[in-house]
Design the sequence.
C-alpha cells in the first residue's frame, strides 16, 4: 500500500525502525543500566534510584524469583501503584525469563481472581494496601509465591518507618490481611542478594507482558505482548519524539513525569521504558488524583515530557497553583487513553506554551500506533499519523481495505501488534485479518495527508 503519511513526517523521523538491533527488551534495558549507571532512573517521594541501583535490585529480585523453581515463561503478577518497587519488579521478572502480568491495584476481588486464574500466574508482588484483596482470592488461583511490599520499603530506615506508620496507623490505608507464607519485599531483596542470578537467553518471540484489556466488550482478555512488540514500540516512540526531545544539556538529563499508572501500557511504554531507553529520570506519582500534591511534585523538577490523559490535563489547568509553575524545560505533553478536548488543549497551551500532542493506541498495540507530530503547534482534532514501521488501513466489515476518504474500521499493522489474546484463539481470529491488520474496533477516516480521525466506536462500550 502507498504510505501517503510519510510525506507528512517531521524532519529527522525515519520511515522504519529496526527492532533487530536488540535480542530482547531485556537486552535494551541492560544496555541502559550500564550506559547510564550513575544517572537517576526514578524518583518517588524524594527518594532517588540510580540505574546502577535498579540494575542491582532487579538482579536480586530476579535471583529470588528463579530460586522458586518456576519454569521460563511463568507469569508473575505485579499489583502496585507508581512506587520504586514497581519498575524494580518489572525489570526483575523480565530478566528472570518470566512474563509480567500487570494488575490494577484497585481491582475488586472478582476482577483480580479472573486475571490471576486466566493468566495462570504463579507469583504475585503486591503492595500491602491491597493484600486483603489477594487474600480473598488466592485459594482459587495457581499463585504459590507472594511478595508483599510497603510504601516505605525503598525510602530508607527512618523515613521509610515514618511513611509506613502514617500509611498504616494515621491514614489507615492498609486493611487487615493475612497471607501465610508470604515474603516481605525487603527480606526478598536481602535473600536474593545471597543467591546467584542466572541470565536467561531471551528472543523476540518470548512473551514479555500479558496486558489485560479493559474488558470494554465483555470479559477482560490478556493481550500477549512479545519482547519484539514492546521493544519495537519503545524504538518507535524514540524515533517519533527523539528530534523534539533532543539531547539533554551537559550534566542534565531528560525528566519524565510519570503520573499515569505503570500497570497501564501507556505509562509503561511511554514513561518507564522510553525513559530508560533515553537515560532519563521518571518522577513516579503514586496518587495523581491528589492534584495539589501532584502540582507540588511538578514544582520540584525540570520536567521535559508529561504524558497524561485529558481528564488529568483538565484537572491541572483548572487548579489555581498550576499556572505559577516553570514550564521552560517542557518539550512535549503527550495525550492518549481518550480524546483530548480542544478547550483543554487551548488552556494547556495558554499556560505552558505547548500543545498537547495526541496519539492513539491500544493494549493490543503496545500501545502507540499513531501520533500527531511532536512539533505540532495547534490542535488538529486527529489522532495523527502512523508511527514508523506502522501501516494504518481503513477496513470494511469484511476486513477489506477501503479507498482513501471513506469511513471504516481502523486497522493497524506493525511490529508492535500483539501475538494474540492469551489462550483465546477464537477471540484472536475475530480481530486479525488475513494480511496482518489488527481490527481496533474504532471507526475512522484518513485524509490525503495521512492523518487519521476517529469518528465512532464500532463496538459498544460496556
Sequence:
Amino acid at each position: 500500500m502507498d504510505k501517503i503519511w510519510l510525506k507528512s513526517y517531521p524532519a529527522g523521523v525515519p520511515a522504519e525502525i529496526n527492532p533487530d538491533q536488540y535480542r530482547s527488551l531485556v537486552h535494551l534495558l541492560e544496555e541502559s543500566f550500564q550506559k547510564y549507571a550513575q544517572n537517576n532512573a526514578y524518583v518517588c517521594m524524594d527518594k532517588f534510584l540510580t540505574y546502577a541501583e535498579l540494575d542491582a535490585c532487579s538482579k536480586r529480585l530476579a535471583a529470588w524469583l528463579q530460586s522458586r523453581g518456576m519454569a521460563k515463561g511463568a507469569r508473575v503478577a505485579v499489583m502496585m501503584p507508581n512506587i520504586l518497587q514497581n519498575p524494580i519488579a518489572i525489570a526483575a521478572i523480565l530478566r528472570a525469563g518470566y512474563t509480567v502480568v500487570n494488575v490494577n491495584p484497585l481491582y475488586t476481588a472478582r476482577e483480580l481472581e479472573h486475571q490471576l486464574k486466566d493468566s495462570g500466574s504463579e507469583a504475585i508482588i503486591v503492595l500491602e494496601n491491597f493484600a486483603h484483596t489477594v487474600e480473598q482470592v488466592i485459594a482459587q488461583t495457581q499463585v504459590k509465591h507472594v511478595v508483599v511490599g510497603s510504601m516505605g520499603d525503598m525510602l530508607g530506615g527512618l523515613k521509610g518507618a515514618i511513611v509506613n506508620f502514617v500509611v498504616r496507623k494515621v491514614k489507615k490505608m492498609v486493611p487487615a490481611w493475612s497471607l501465610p507464607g508470604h515474603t516481605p519485599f525487603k527480606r526478598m531483596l536481602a535473600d536474593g542478594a545471597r543467591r546467584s542470578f542466572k541470565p536467561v537467553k531471551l528472543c523476540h518471540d518470548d512473551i514479555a507482558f500479558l496486558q489485560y484489556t479493559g474488558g470494554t466488550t465483555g470479559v477482560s482478555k490478556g493481550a500477549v505482548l512479545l519482547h519484539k512488540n514492546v521493544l519495537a514500540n519503545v524504538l518507535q516512540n524514540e524515533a517519533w519524539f527523539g528530534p523534539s526531545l533532543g539531547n539533554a544539556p551537559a550534566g542534565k538529563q531528560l525528566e519524565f513525569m510519570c503520573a499515569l499508572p505503570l500497570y497501564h501500557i501507556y505509562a509503561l511504554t511511554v514513561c518507564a521504558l522510553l525513559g530508560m531507553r533515553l537515560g532519563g529520570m521518571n518522577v513516579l506519582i503514586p496518587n495523581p488524583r491528589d492534584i495539589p500534591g501532584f502540582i507540588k511534585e511538578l514544582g520540584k523538577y525540570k520536567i521535559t515530557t508529561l504524558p497524561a490523559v485529558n481528564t488529568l490535563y483538565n484537572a491541572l489547568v483548572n487548579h489555581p497553583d498550576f499556572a505559577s509553575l516553570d514550564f521552560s524545560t517542557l518539550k512535549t505533553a503527550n495525550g492518549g487513553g481518550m480524546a483530548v478536548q480542544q478547550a483543554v488543549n487551548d488552556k494547556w497551551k495558554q499556560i505552558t506554551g505547548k500543545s498537547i500532542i495526541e496519539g492513539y493506541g491500544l493494549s493490543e498495540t503496545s500501545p502507540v500506533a499513531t501520533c500527531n507530530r511532536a512539533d505540532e503547534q495547534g490542535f488538529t482534532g486527529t489522532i495523527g499519523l502512523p508511527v514508523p514501521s506502522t501501516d494504518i488501513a481503513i477496513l470494511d466489515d469484511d476486513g477489506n481495505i477501503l479507498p482513501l476518504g471513506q469511513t471504516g474500521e481502523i486497522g493497524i499493522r506493525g511490529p508492535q501488534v500483539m501475538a494474540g489474546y492469551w489462550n483465546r484463539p477464537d477471540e484472536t481470529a475475530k480481530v486479525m485479518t488475513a494480511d496482518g491488520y489488527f481490527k481496533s474496533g474504532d471507526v475512522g477516516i484518513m485524509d490525503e495527508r495521512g492523518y487519521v480521525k476517529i469518528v465512532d466506536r464500532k463496538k459498544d462500550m460496556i
